[in-house]
């Protein structure tokens, strides 16, 4: 099934079931008010949502309405966890190579992962509002899963069974703020602003045979200012499956329902597949000619991230965002 | 006022107001069911909770009961953000010195901070359940704040106004897993298991004159297996105030209500004040004699972290935890 969270003025939005063709939706608030609440009690709630999904697809759902991605918040507008892997090690190797650094061999057999901010996840068509172009604004096209409760120390097999939903992500990155943060060793704080997510989250069965061995075997298509710049296959060159990423995350602690785990920037070794982040393009330029010539995003730029099924239909709906300059800070008159 | 979250079998627990002397409590569920819900609408909810707090302190609250810290979850059992600073730069310098590494000078004027996991924050008397003593189990005594909504790019003055509550933290750390994770640059994932928090969260006014310039000017007392090992003053040698830590966090993104921001391990330059994490003690041993002799925690060990006011009364209640071995993983029969 396909689920979305609609804007209603609240912090967590309103849960809706969306039809397979993304054309209609119906509120699911009588089943569960929010997606987090559904995830909190998934085995009880999911079958009821599935029933509603079947009715909607058969055009038999009461009070259905046209689905508008512009009304979507992130499926989880705020989550209790967002942990992002770097499963496409090819991407990591390219980045290192471009700065003449050796990538540790361990990166091929142990996932690289960082803990991201999850208090303010933004919707698929929300603007990317940032203070300065000087920060080196970049997109990163990724796939992510939402988990149920994953017990500490479980293996990949068990971890994989707790994958509830899948989404697309634009993991916005501020490239010029990354080197000083990485040098400190403590990961990303300022260099990873709010990430945005696809209009709908889908259960793995929606992917059919494209969901195999805990990977999504379909191209992820990224367009920048209207031009397709990448369509690498998310199932190719993914060194760690989602099950393995979740296993890694759960090694020393329980991972609780509603945790989002990302794949990292999708990247294929076959460079003809293009790129899903500008940084990779720039790395290739540096490796080829010593100088990066493609600039990062400017205010006004747009990015679109989408995944189509074998029949050419959008699975998750599209992330379509524009970069905008933050207005100058206005001091509030009094402590709120 | 003082607020606690009581165990009721749900994921988020039940909000209670606790008396200043920590002796009695009263459910606040008719005002706000959970602490997060109170934080979501603080300006409306807080005055109602304050009224109840006044009644409770005057012994006029209906249906009050004896307050038992064992019934407490973390004030926020799951939070949308846990970002931990390293404001006691002295501690960072000692760690570096013990491994003959130079600390970058920038650490004195820009906060070091990492994004931590917040999906499973544990209660003040919950066991620290871990898989192996070989991981190098350590406690870290800290102070933390909970924020309201902090707008992107605001200054420390504005950020400080959004500090709603204060807590104590035991930021459990797995010392032997840290070096390989830090070497990758992506911060802590496996080396920082679930953190635990004090029985109550308190509004800054509860600290009286000890809350000054956005720092807590009181000793933080840590006991290990019943022996006091540290009582450094949290207001001394704190290079970055909580307001500055929140400002740092909010540089490139909006920080949403219910975000927890930690001080990092409390540490004074005056070594006679002892230590609030074993790693620091071991660093001092290495610097003095070349070898760390104090072992990390073993299964069965206990740690107690508390802060007393000038009159010797506990402000937050005590974190009292025992380290226990995780039972072997039992595979569940079917996908949940």
From TrEMBL, chains A, B:
Residues 82-323 form the Fumarylacetoacetase-like C-terminal domain. Keywords: Hydrolase. Residues 1-78 form the Fumarylacetoacetase N-terminal domain. The keyword Cell membrane does not apply. The keyword Hydrolase applies. GO terms for molecular function: hydrolase activity. Gene3D superfamilies: Fumarylacetoacetase-like, C-terminal domain (3.90.850.10). This is Fumarylacetoacetate hydrolase family protein.
């Amino acid at each position: 099934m396909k689920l979305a969270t609609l804007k209603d003025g609240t912090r967590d939005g309103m849960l809706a079931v969306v039809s397979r063709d993304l054309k209609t939706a119906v509120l699911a608030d009588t089943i569960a008010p929010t997606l987090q609440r559904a995830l909190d009690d998934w085995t009880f709630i999911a079958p009821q949502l599935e029933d509603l999904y079947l009715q909607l697809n058969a055009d038999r759902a009461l009070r259905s309405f046209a689905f508008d991605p512009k009304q979507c918040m992130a499926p989880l507008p705020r989550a209790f966890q967002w942990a992002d892997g770097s499963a496409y090690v090819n991407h990591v190797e390219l980045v290192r190579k471009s700065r003449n650094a050796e990538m540790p061999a361990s990166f091929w057999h142990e996932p690289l992962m960082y803990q991201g901010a999850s208090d303010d996840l933004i919707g698929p068509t929300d603007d990317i509002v940032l203070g300065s172009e000087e920060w080196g604004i970049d997109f990163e096209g990724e796939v992510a899963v939402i988990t149920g409760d994953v017990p500490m120390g479980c293996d990949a097999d068990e971890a994989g069974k707790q994958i509830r939903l899948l989404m697309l992500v634009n993991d916005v990155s501020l490239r010029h703020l990354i080197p000083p943060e990485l040098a400190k060793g403590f990961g990303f704080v300022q260099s990873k602003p709010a990430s945005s997510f696809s209009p709908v989250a889908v259960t793995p069965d929606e992917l059919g045979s494209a969901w195999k061995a805990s990977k999504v075997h379909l191209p992820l298509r990224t367009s920048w200012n209207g031009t397709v710049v990448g369509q690498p296959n998310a199932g190719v060159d993914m060194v760690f499956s989602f099950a393995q990423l979740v296993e890694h995350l759960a090694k020393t602690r329980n991972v609780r329902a509603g945790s989002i785990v990302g794949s990292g920037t999708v990247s294929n070794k076959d460079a003809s597949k293009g790129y899903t982040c500008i940084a990779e393009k720039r790395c290739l330029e540096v490796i080829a000619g010593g100088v990066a010539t493609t600039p990062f995003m400017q205010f006004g730029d747009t990015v679109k991230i989408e995944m189509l099924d074998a029949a050419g239909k959008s699975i998750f709906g599209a992330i379509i965002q524009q970069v905008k300059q933050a207005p100058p800070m206005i001091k509030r008159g009094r402590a709120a």
